[in-house]
Write the structure tokens for this entry.
Amino acid sequence: MKESLVEFQKNAEAELNSAGSREELLAIRTKYLGRKGLLTTLLRKIGSVSPQQRPLVGKLSNEIKDVLSVKIENALEEIAYREKCETLLHEKIDVTLPGRGVSHGRIHPIVQMSREICEVFSGLGFSVVKGPEVELSHYNFEALNIPEGHPARDTQDTFYVEDNIVLRTHTSPVQIRIMEKQRPPVRIVSPGKVYRPDSDISHTPMFHQIEGLLVDKDITFGDLKGVLTYLLQQIFGEGTALRFRPSFFPFTEPSAEIDIQCIICGGAGCRVCGRSGWIEILGAGMVDPEVFKAVDYDPEEISGFAFGLGVERIAMLKYGISDIRLFYENDRRFLEQF
Ligand code: PHE
């Protein structure tokens, strides 16, 4: 029995020494040490061994089993190590390749446009101020000479928060807030969100305006025209065609609306400009004496002009965008172009 075990070990080791692959090693393990392997078969004959010899034979067979197991394990590890060395040798990592890009956010086109316009005014000595979006009806309407029941309230449908609190329908209330706090001269622009219940290709319920106000001695309509023409030429280029149209606002007198020639169709008439060839982008006028009185300014002493412009309209014209809703759909393919 002992001789058989020694013989068994010798055979197994001979096979191990000539084995070159993982598959061969695994096959040898099954053949010699497996549940139905040669060692099991051998040990079945332990009954023919004398009782004194049996423990010794058992011990020997365990030792042989352990030695073979360790040898097989080592050989398997050796193979795995060699394979790893092989791959490392052939697989090269090009550390000079650029990394996977991290996409980063950018400033929304409307905010960019707002900033660009405010910068033109900063250059003219205007300061940039802010006002609240949730506004007292007093500032949004009454102080601007739009009393309750005034037809101008109908032309500006309004989101009401409470009886006397609204989402501001324009940035003009900032005019009042500033003049209440400050004596003339006043030279401000005020960008921000405004709200009206409108929704179509050229209207969204929330949009952006920039309010402007200049009050000083001897300000004339010529100053208004000069400043706004300068602004639009800065934004759209020197040759930009403009149209000053007489209009009406309760808080300015005289009032004008300023149109820019439709850049989408070049003035021929299209869906965006309502087939007229012109797009209204600005409301403006000389501050009404009633407004000055409401903030305790003396209309005999000073005069001023005010304007409100639509930022989306200007951005649409500047970038040739024909649907205002694109600004608010958050499609990255659109936003990433700016
Ligand atoms: N607030 C007006 C509007 O939203 C625009 C405007 C501002 C007109 C200032 C005149 C002076 O339509």
Observations:
- The longest strand covers residues 206-216.
- The radius of gyration is 43 Å.
- The CA atoms of residues 87 and 93 lie 11 Å apart.
- Residues 170, 172, 249, 252, 255, 283-285, 306-308 surround phenylalanine (CB under 6 Å).
